[in-house]
Amino acid sequence: MSFLPKRDRLVAYLVLASLLLTGVAWLFDPGRDATAHAYPAEASFSGGRPAGGSFVLVDQDGQPKTDGDFRGGWTLIYFGYASCADVCPTELATMVGALDLLPEEVESDVSPVLISVDPERDTPALLGEYVPQFHPRLTGLTGTPEQLGPVLQAYGVVAEKRYSGGSAEYSMDHSSFFYLLAPDGRLQAVFHPGLSPEALAGGLSRRIAES
């Protein structure tokens, strides 16, 4: 996580490792719900737990957005960046495909959000061109490295610049998860990458119905 201090990067790596271990433990828990095998890439947190904390970022329209703006409805967050060539577009397509599969009354209560891991390039104007390509309700959030760093750390997101061939151009190596937050802002589930829209929609429906 190139724009976090070294100590904070270590914390972020440890948090990510904890998330991954939680997912593995969930997979091999013989006491889990009998229907849960349909969602093998979901790591759940019983009762929810605080995640993200307070923040003030900027959306694709240049307007300030705080964590409080997303309270009262469900929020599905993905961390990525507009210059991403493959993983981010694929996972964002999965996100919006899953939303399209939800019943209308459920879909309208879920806010899709992209939080940038590349604040140096992801300006509001760039996100304003990028996010409408995926969904009319997708909110793109960016900010300064100082604003985004604590948010990435709180979610255990790993993000590092990768240069190739001596060029000044870079890509971002980053973790790729979906985070489902309840209307009170508490983390309810983390969905691993590589799901089909149908699998993600099923997991979202189940989590929301169980709340």
UniProtKB/TrEMBL annotation:
UniProt xrefs under InterPro entries: SCO1/SenC (IPR003782), Thioredoxin-like_sf (IPR036249)
A Pfam family that the UniProt record links to this protein: SCO1-SenC
Annotated Gene3D superfamilies: Glutaredoxin
Entries under CDD domains matching the protein: SCO
Matching SUPFAM superfamilies: Thioredoxin-like
Family: Belongs to the SCO1/2 family.
Name of the molecule in the record: SCO family protein
Species lineage: Bacteria, Pseudomonadati, Pseudomonadota, Alphaproteobacteria, Acetobacterales
